[in-house]
Amino acid sequence: MNLSAEDFQAITLTLQLASVVTVLLLLLATPVAWWLAHTRSVWRAPVASLVALPLVLPPTVLGFYLLVALGPNGPIGQFTQWAGWGTLAFSFWGLVLGSVVYSLPFAVQPLVNAFEAMGPRPMEVAATLRASQWDAFFTVAVPLAKPGFVMAAMLSFAHTVGEFGVVLMIGGNIPDTTRVVSTQIYGHVEAMEYSQAHGLAGVMLVFSFVVLLGLSWFNHRSDQHKKVGA
Amino acid sequence: MTLRSLLALAGSLLSVIAHAGEVSVAVAANFTAPMQKIAQAFEQDTGHKAQLAFGATGKFYAQIKNGAPFAVLLAADDETPARLEKEGLAVAGTRFTYATGRLALWCKQANVVDDKGEVLRSNSFNKIAIADPKLAPYGAAAMEVIHKLGVQANVVPKLVQGESIGQTYQFVSTENAQLGFVALSQISLDGRITQGSAWVVPQSLYTPLKQDAVLLNAGKDNTAAHALLKYLQGDTAKTIIKGYGYAL
After folding, report:
1. Which of B126, B134, B160 is the closest to A191 by Cβ?
2. For A78-105, what is the mean pLDDT?
3. Which positions in chain A touch B159 (Cβ < 8 Å)?
4. Which residue in A188, A208, B191, B206 has the fewest CB atoms around it within 10 Å?
């Protein structure tokens, strides 16, 4: 397998992107998931559907809306220009924004499941022990929902690494800024550089398999753990 | 539905196919608009129907190599049809240039692009879109122009690449890139630029973007395919092609 310097550049950039996106997603998805798991509001169903939309929408639709929204006349573009950041298309932070939207359901869903599985009881007990809501959240809810957090992080990371359509539409293929592994592979294939495509494609295949294998093992272990604990 | 009525239906379908032929055509994305018009006129004049598929020439090449049943290819370059012929996938001696693409530097705003391309030396833009030079002939032509004008230092750090000339147009049209090298056919109708400001790049600055057509093996015995290739060289088609800013 012979990876070029550009291929390594794409791999580094992809890992950076996926790391930033995973951190942001965990910060963003936790309150959303907590709310979804506990609310009885009529807005629950519409918000849950909105969060799940990227699962169903083709990346071309997301990419197209993002491209229009990020442009100087789009709502996001007007805001970022007003804030003095310029426009975000063709930039690393543009890809971060696109990836956060694209991978949102993969972070929210495991957390909702974990919070729901926990039930109201632990928080109630914590409250009777006079723990503040925040205190209870961090010392009781977060440790109990740890498997959910791990799964959310792994899925967000892996899904961002595998992202293609959105990046293709808002990235502009700039080396070291927006040329990630998936678009680099696409370029190799389209230019009929099959041997280079094979190298990177192989890396992606192995990576994806290892992540899924890890998830499966982790799930199995935490299930066993629960049974022992019960 | 009974078996008899099914057979009758199949029979009538067969007779239709025998009279008015059908030809499936793989069309380079930059030729989308003119080809839709030409196909309409072709159907009116000959009764044959052209089924059009639009896309990147490189993709079509891979599909044809793997047995895609296209009868005719209208490529975005002259290399792909030549290569298909050499590899025995196209009928020898049927290649011809149906249009010569023209490159334009385009901005969606009026009065930004001057008629000499001097804007490329200025600082009045922060992103300029081209098609990926590795994948699209229009992208390779754009790079040639940038080098011939000697503006690499100012332009290359601001380059963003679309995977096709269609995506390049999108970037400029949504103003995410202020400037872009697009196909003249994308921004002109009836010989005029439809929106914004543009510089039609002189053809002396890049290798001619010859777009060749070729009859593929699947269309060898297809009357409609032969008719379409002839029609593309006729006056009706030529007028439409010129109207979209192609040279002939």
Report:
1. B134
2. 95
3. 174
4. B191
Q: What percent of chain A has pLDDT over 70?
A: 97
B3-100+209-243 belongs to CATH 3.40.190.10: yes
Judge whether residue B47 has pLDDT over 50.
yes
- Which has the closest alpha carbon to B121: B161, B144, B152? B152
Map out the domains of chain B as residue ranges.
3-100+209-243, 103-200
**B3-100+209-243 matches B103-200 in fold:** yes
Q: Are strands B192-193 and B188-189 parallel, antiparallel or unpaired?
A: antiparallel
| Extents of the domains making up chain A | 7-180
pLDDT at B11: 55
Note the pTM of the prediction, 2 decimals.
Answer: 0.83
Q: What is the mean pLDDT of residues A150-160?
A: 96
Calculated CA dihedral for residues A51, A53, A55, A60, nearest 10 degrees:
-130
Tell whether the model's pLDDT for residue B221 goes beyond 90: yes
More confident residue, B11 or B124: B124
Fold type of domain A7-180: MetI-like fold (1.10.3720)
Whether B109 has its CB under 8 Å from any CB of chain A: the answer is no
Q: What is the ipTM of this complex?
A: 0.81
Strand residue runs (E) in chain B? 22-28, 49-55, 72-74, 96-101, 103-107, 128-131, 159-162, 179-183, 188-189, 192-193, 197-200, 209-215
